[in-house]
Design goal:
By secondary structure, this protein is mainly alpha-helical. Helices cover 43% and strands 1% of the residues. It has 16 helices and two strands. The chain has a two-stranded antiparallel ribbon. The chain is globular and about 55 Å long. This is Terpene cyclase/mutase family protein. Keywords: Membrane, Signal, Transmembrane, Transmembrane helix.
Length: 406
């Protein structure tokens, strides 16, 4: 496995940061005592607030638990007037402007969560409209509007389109659909990394296999989002790599590659520069969902069983998005997230949300509930591309192994 995806996001800061120096200086990060009480987690939301909130709401919905109204209101209140979302807006009453660093990943995650919950059509329609407006000519999306297309961003947007009732294959720019972009990011069936997805092309145009992008690409190629219903798919293990001319074959090729990357115990490894190989809990959970989406139940169940034995401590250290990711993996395999090796993932996630002990706020839940979802919202933002280190599919955007190229 290559350098973890967080390196990509840090590189994107260098690419995008120069465009928003004033945004970085205008609004300091909230202290723990100033965090919105409706927000999940007690860490700085500057880079991942909307992302982790969306996963938390989606996971509770998957587990049959109704998320708090205040938490949903906080998420809808983060939307800009043009439909996009930034990771965190300290003052939603101020209008978004050119310095507001919105991105496709936060926006797509919010769409997936709110579409699943239902009753937020005005919000999701505006968000989908914005996503369509920033589609690249190759059919894909980058993390930031206009950035080079990458597998993870393209896939999470495909999930949002599908969740909102769109047909991703019919969403095109210059005649290219997001599936065209994904096919262009998959490695051929010869040579190292055969059948895998790359995050983005290298500077010389070559493609490097990326396990996390492969899990994301599998979901995107199948037209699925983060919420995968159990028992779907063809039920067949991936075979050998065959030149992909369809998204479904690309997903099968990705599954074949990813299966070969798993250890005998069923998990993926993370390689830290200068360090030893360690289990990659986040990427393994991504893989579980991707395998389940294809219907490869045997492999999904094996990897999930490994997570069940080993991932509880990781989730406790990583926070609400990690709990959410494991809940979504449990849902995809038909497992019970309330009995995850003796841990109740749903209870742990809820404990990190509204009314969590010690959390205070500048704005009350009543303030959040009464925000007009269609009004223009303001924002500050420091370039939010450090997003979700260690949380999975950037899921699609957890620990990127490639850099976001300009």
């Amino acid at each position: 496995m290559n350098v973890r995806r967080s390196a990509a996001v840090l590189a994107a800061v260098a690419v995008l940061g120069a465009a928003a120096p004033a945004a970085a200086d205008s609004s300091p990060s909230p202290t723990p005592q100033e965090l919105p009480s409706a927000l999940y987690g007690d860490t700085d939301p500057q880079y991942d607030g909307v992302w982790r909130q969306s996963l938390a709401l989606l996971a509770q919905h998957a587990a049959g638990a109704e998320p708090p109204k205040a938490a949903v209101g906080w998420l809808t209140g983060q939307q800009c007037a043009d439909g996009s979302f930034a990771p965190f807006r300290a003052d939603p009453s101020a209008a978004c402007d050119a310095k507001t660093m919105v991105d496709t990943n936060q926006t797509a995650a919010a769409v997936q969560a709110l579409a699943a919950l239902g009753g937020h059509d005005a919000v999701t329609e505006k968000a989908v409209g914005w996503l369509k407006s920033v589609q690249n000519k190759d059919g894909g999306w980058g993390y930031a509007a206009g950035g080079a297309s990458d597998t993870n961003s393209t896939s999470v947007v495909i999930g949002a389109l599908a969740a909102a009732g769109e047909k991703p294959g019919e969403v095109k720019n210059s005649g290219k659909s997001p599936y065209d972009a994904l096919l262009g990011l998959e490695l051929p069936c010869t040579g190292e990394g055969a059948g895998a997805f790359a995050f983005q092309p290298e500077k010389d145009g070559s493609l490097a296999a990326n396990a996390d992008a492969t899990a994301a690409g599998m979901l995107g190629a199948l037209g699925k989002g983060l919420l995968v219903e159990p028992g779907k798919g063809d039920g067949e293990a991936a075979g050998s790599c065959v030149k992909a001319t369809t998204p479904e074959q690309a997903a099968a090729n990705g599954a074949a590659h990813l299966s070969g990357e798993l250890t005998a115990e069923g998990h993926l490894l993370a390689v830290t520069p200068g360090g030893e190989e360690q289990p990659d809990f986040s990427n393994t959970a991504d893989a579980v969902i991707a395998f389940a989406a294809r219907g490869d139940a045997a492999q999904a169940d094996k990897s999930y069983a490994w997570l069940e034995k080993n991932a509880a401590d990781w989730a406790a250290q990583s926070g609400p998005a990690a709990y959410a990711q494991l809940i979504l993996a449990a849902h995809a395999t038909g497992a019970d997230p309330r009995d995850f090796g003796g841990t109740d993932l749903v209870k742990q996630l809820q404990a990190a949300g509204p009314a969590a002990p010690g959390k205070t706020t500048k704005a009350t839940e009543k303030d959040e509930d009464e925000k007009d979802e269609s009004s223009p919202f303001g924002v500050w933002w420091f370039v939010g591309v450090c997003l979700v280190a260690g949380i999975g599919i950037g899921f699609l955007i957890s620990n990127r192994t490639k850099r976001q190229q300009p």
